[in-house]
């Protein structure tokens, strides 16, 4: 029991996300097989508005480690109902799909994403994967015609208790029609339970939690496979995930799973905890950050100039401010242990070209650091750290460093005195 309760402390995304991911109302009737046919986040200072250069060629495959994928997550649509986090104006969705086309971004299928991630396919440098959660009927009536018009593949993450065709839900026949026009099917569990239900399962013991997983992940996999053919993708309801859930997923047949944690995806991404941007209906900035692949040397230099006369961080950082880093993958770190009245749990790091990054904190030393998953090609690199004092007052600092190739190493006299 103690081991299971400890898992709660390792939860990556907890109940704080639940307010954004309330499942649509469920009809208690089962799926009918023969029914005919469905705290405001501030953007990191380093990320600019999307503006891909007309000269950019995003049509050719590149080395796998140079590709980044923005996974977009949507829910419900309407041109008349009030917009919310989960309900987007249909006209806004069309504008976003048009922006993807005008920016020259490659929209890939789930199959292409997995082949790239597993090392069997090369893709262009900037790609987008479109996902839609739950099974709202408006996905079929509003979003699907737009996706079909643009020829974009997409993935539907369905939870089976909502797949009845009653109320605002889709029918199996609607889903099958979309499969004929680029849709891939993935599981969003059986019941779309809140994190509190999963935690209750943990508290009831290992056997109870295993039975809950069998129903929510195993039964959903079987049911969706029966209705629509083989599936292999899962999407965590409410973003709630524990190490035990991650370990159990492959036993049901899943090979990839998606969170609600934003960030670009690279080849080193944990395939069972893939980052995803949840595009809110009342906040277009999420979409803007998601499709911003435009960081380049020109705007990097501009940002660096803006930081040149700024005070250096009041604690040791690496690489040092204004220094040259002769490493392709320098560990970016800050020793904040000596900072007075700091809430270490509030520290966040943003890096130019990556936006907010999943930095790690060593609470014993007060060191926060991040290991870039990709080589840092664009120089200079700007780093921003933000945190809160114990009283809640927000603070931040920033610095930049230059990335130098090994061929640019300074000449040194390697005599006995310099060894």
Structural features:
419 residues; alpha/beta; TIM Barrel; Immunoglobulin-like; six-stranded parallel sheet; five-stranded mixed sheet; 10 helices; globular; disordered N terminus
Provide a concise account of the structure shown.
It contains ten helices and 19 strands.
| Main CATH class of the largest domain | Alpha Beta
Low-confidence segments? 1-21, 27-55, 296-300, 406-419
Our estimate of the beta-strand percent is 15-25%
Question: Could you report the average pLDDT, rounded to the nearest whole number?
Answer: 81
Major sheet: size, sense and barrel closure?
6 strands, parallel
Reported CATH architecture of the largest domain: Alpha-Beta Barrel
Please give the number of β-strands. Answer: 19
Provide the CATH topology of the largest domain: TIM Barrel
- Write down the Rg: 23 Å
What is the H/E order? HEEEHEHEHEHEHHEHEEHHEEEEEEEEE
How many separate domains make up the residues?
2
For the record, what is the CATH homologous superfamily label of the largest domain? Glycoside hydrolase/deacetylase
Per DSSP, the total helix count is 10
Ends apart, CA distance between termini: 56 Å
Helix content: 25-40%
Gross geometry: globular
Commentary on this structure:
This protein is α/β, with parallel strands linked by helices and 419 residues long. The chain folds into 2 domains: 2-290, Alpha-Beta Barrel (TIM Barrel), CATH 3.20.20; 297-408, Sandwich (Immunoglobulin-like). Helix content is 26%, strand content 21%. It contains 10 helices and 19 strands. The strands form 5 sheets. Strands 1, 4, 5, 6, 7 and 10 form a 6-stranded parallel β-sheet that branches. It has a 5-stranded mixed β-sheet with strand order 12-19-18-14-15, with helices on one face. Helix 2 (90-102) runs parallel beside helix 4 (137-150). The longest helix has 23 residues, at 206-228. The N and C termini lie far apart (56 Å). The model is unreliable at 1-21, 27-55, 296-300 and 406-419 (pLDDT under 50).
């Amino acid at each position: 029991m103690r081991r299971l309760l400890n898992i709660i402390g390792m939860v990556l995304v907890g109940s704080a996300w639940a307010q954004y991911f309330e499942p649509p109302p469920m009809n208690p009737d089962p799926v009918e097989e023969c029914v005919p046919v469905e705290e405001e986040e501030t953007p990191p200072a380093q990320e600019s508005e999307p503006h891909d250069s007309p000269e950019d060629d995003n049509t050719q495959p590149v080395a796998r480690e140079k590709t980044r994928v923005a996974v977009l997550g949507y829910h419900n649509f309407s041109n008349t109902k009030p917009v919310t986090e989960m309900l987007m104006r249909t006209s806004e969705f069309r504008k976003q799909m048009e922006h993807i086309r005008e920016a020259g971004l490659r929209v890939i299928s789930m199959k292409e994403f997995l082949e790239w991630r597993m090392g069997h396919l090369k893709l262009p440098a900037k790609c987008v994967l479109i996902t839609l959660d739950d099974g709202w009927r408006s996905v079929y009536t509003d979003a699907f015609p737009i996706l079909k018009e643009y020829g974009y593949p997409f993935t539907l993450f369905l939870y089976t208790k909502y797949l009845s065709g009653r109320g605002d839900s889709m029918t199996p026949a609607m889903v099958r029609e979309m499969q004929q026009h680029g849709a891939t099917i993935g599981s969003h569990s059986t019941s779309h339970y809140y994190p509190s239900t999963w935690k209750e399962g943990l508290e009831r013991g290992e056997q109870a939690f295993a039975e809950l997983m069998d129903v929510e992940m195993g039964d959903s996999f079987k049911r969706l496979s029966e209705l629509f053919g083989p599936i292999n993708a899962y999407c965590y309801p409410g973003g709630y995930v524990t190490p035990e859930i991650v370990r159990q997923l492959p036993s049901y047949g899943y090979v990839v799973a998606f969170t609600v944690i934003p960030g670009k995806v690279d080849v080193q991404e944990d395939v069972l905890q893939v980052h995803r941007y949840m595009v809110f209906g009342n906040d277009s900035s999420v979409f803007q950050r998601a499709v911003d692949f435009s960081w380049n040397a020109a705007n990097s230099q501009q940002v660096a100039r803006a930081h040149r006369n700024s005070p250096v961080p009041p604690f040791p950082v690496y690489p040092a401010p204004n220094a040259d880093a002769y490493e392709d993958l320098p560990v970016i770190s800050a020793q904040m242990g000596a900072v007075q009245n700091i809430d270490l749990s509030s520290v966040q790091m943003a890096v130019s070209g990556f936006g907010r990054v999943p930095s790690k904190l060593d609470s014993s030393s007060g060191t926060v650091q991040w290991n870039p998953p990709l080589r840092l090609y664009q120089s200079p690199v700007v780093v921003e750290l933000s945190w809160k004092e114990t009283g809640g007052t927000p603070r931040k600092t920033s610095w930049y460093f230059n990335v130098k190739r090994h061929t640019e190493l300074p000449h040194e006299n390697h005599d006995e005195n310099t060894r």
